[in-house]
Write a structure and sequence with these properties.
The protein is of the alpha+beta class. The protein contains 10 helices and 22 strands. The protein has a single domain, classed as TIM Barrel. The structure holds zinc ion (ZN) (2 copies). The site of one zinc ion has 5 residues, from loops.
């Protein structure tokens, strides 16, 4: 069953169609060759990631234009380049008069940084104080109006900005803001930041934002920034009066650096994926002040990366990858490539995509190819991949309970250790899994670590040791049954 959007039913159907259509275009483009290859039984089928570009990035970076920030925009962009990023988003805090500072000072600096570093895409963003909730990243599509439109959005909808009067700080005001983006800046994006940090983002708010922002609201930080903070991620570790009171005490912690919503198999993220919602995760630095200079942060790319796969290298393709889940997250450069895809007959789907299983094809092949970097990470280590988990959950349809935050069907369907993968000619580690005759729609996602931990450990308070346990998390692939 498809996730039905009664008010905009065509959207996801169109999305399935587009995914499928892209597959068809891809297939048609190589048809003569493909036919020959498939006729030789010893050749593997083509890899849907071939021909694209991998580009790492960070959508949550502060500068001196945040009251708690320190660096010039060009300094942060330079650090992003130094640490291997190909795109980044400058997201200073929404605040009193920040819309004016953005237009007069910060945006000219951002344009200067673009000129100084032509090999990285620098987007104009905002760390929005989402009314009645947490912070969120808003990313603007590049264009001559980018800063003006963002400043206008901030003045209208950020409760800490009073340039147009005091915006309301209510759940309805947040929905109004997302509707505004969806209508007037549909190429923009909104991700919830550090969602479980203070328990301010309830499951029904995530669902509501996703319902009214089908194009612009596509997920949240799977791992927060501030990874050198002694309270990892600067997580408060306990609820406040403003918290959604049904979250359990363990939700206020990070788990080997990842947010509880993502790190829990069968948790908040899985409950949203069970509805077939296109909700995707990212990992960012939230870089304010580096830990060697008195802060608790890494520079962009130094520890956290969101690695996107693009059909070609252009700024709008980065935003489309973020929108469509064509990306994975990683800490400490544990891996630098993840080709995770499913095939059935002549169809395939990449991360974030949907495979529509043809009626007579009952066998879904899952391929996971990862690359471990050949150089050391920024702690001077070469971490070893210990195991990779393939997580499966059923797509059971829209939850009647808008605050549901569990999915009991989610489970580790396969665990791959070194003995279970083989090394391909290009050095990638290949794992395969087959799902026979599925009777219900489902989704798959992948995680892996350098530790032998079966589940990530809760991070203890007053310890800053982020390099010991490293994880990567993929985005999901949805599999639906045709007919
Ligand atoms: Zn924040
Ligand atoms: Zn921030």
């Amino acid at each position: 069953m498809r996730y039905p959007h009664p008010d905009e039913r065509s959207y996801l159907s169109r999305r399935v169609f587009l995914t499928h259509a892209l597959g068809v275009v891809f297939t048609l483009g190589v048809e003569p060759h493909l036919t020959r290859v498939l006729s030789r039984a010893d050749e593997p089928p083509p890899n849907p990631y071939r021909g694209g570009v991998w580009l790492a990035g960070d959508h949550h970076i502060h500068t001196k234009y945040s009251s708690d920030g320190k660096y010039e925009i060009a300094k942060q962009v330079g650090e992003a380049v130094q640490h291997g990023l190909g795109w980044c988003v400058i997201t200073d805090h929404g605040a009193k008069d920040h819309d004016k500072i953005l237009l007069k000072k910060a945006y000219p600096d951002l344009l200067e940084a673009r000129r100084a570093y032509p090999n990285i895409f620098v987007f104009q963003g905002l760390e929005w104080n989402v009314p009645a909730a947490e912070h969120g990243t808003v990313i603007m599509p590049m264009g001559e109006d980018e800063a003006r439109r963002l400043a206008e959005f901030e003045a209208r909808f950020d409760p800490k900005n009073t340039s147009l009067g005091q915006p309301p700080d209510t759940e309805e005001a947040a929905l109004e803001a997302v509707r505004y983006l969806e209508r007037f800046v549909p190429a923009a994006l909104f991700f919830a930041n550090h969602p479980a940090r203070r328990g301010l983002v309830s499951p029904h708010e995530l669902r509501a934002w996703s319902d009214v922002g089908k194009r612009v609201m596509r997920g949240f930080e799977g791992a927060p920034g501030h990874q050198m903070d002694k309270m990892r991620g600067a997580y408060r570790q306990k609820p406040s009066a403003q918290s959604w009171q049904k979250y359990p005490p363990e939700s206020y912690l990070t788990y080997d650096g990842f947010d509880w919503m993502t790190a829990t198999v069968g948790g908040v993220w899985d409950s949203l994926l069970a509805e077939g919602r296109p909700i995707y995760i990212t990992a960012n630095s939230d870089s304010h002040v580096h830990y060697k200079e008195g802060g608790s942060d890494f520079f962009p790319g130094e520890y956290s990366k969101t690695i996107t796969w693009l059909p070609e290298r252009r700024p709008s393709a980065v935003l489309e990858a973020l929108r469509s889940g064509s990306m994975f997250t990683v800490h400490g450069d544990l891996i630098d490539r993840l080709e995770f895809y499913v095939r059935a007959g002549d169809r395939h789907a990449r991360m974030g995509g949907t495979l529509l299983l043809p009626p007579r094809v009952r066998r879904v092949q899952v391929v996971i190819r990862v690359r471990v970097p050949s150089s050391t990470n920024f702690a001077g280590q070469r971490p070893t991949l210990h195991h990779v988990d393939l997580i499966e959950g059923k797509i059971t349809g829209v939850s009647a309970d808008r605050d549901n935050f569990t999915n009991p069907t989610a489970r580790v369907a396969a665990r791959f250790l070194a003995r279970d993968w083989k090394r391909d000619d290009d050095g990638y580690l290949r794992m395969e899994h087959v799902i026979e005759d599925p009777s219900e729609p489902f989704y798959l996602r992948v995680r892996g670590t350098n530790t032998s931990r079966r589940e990530p450990f809760p991070d203890p308070p007053n310890v800053a040791a982020p390099w010991a346990a490293l994880w990567f998390y993929s985005n999901p692939i949805f599999v639906r049954l045709a007919g």
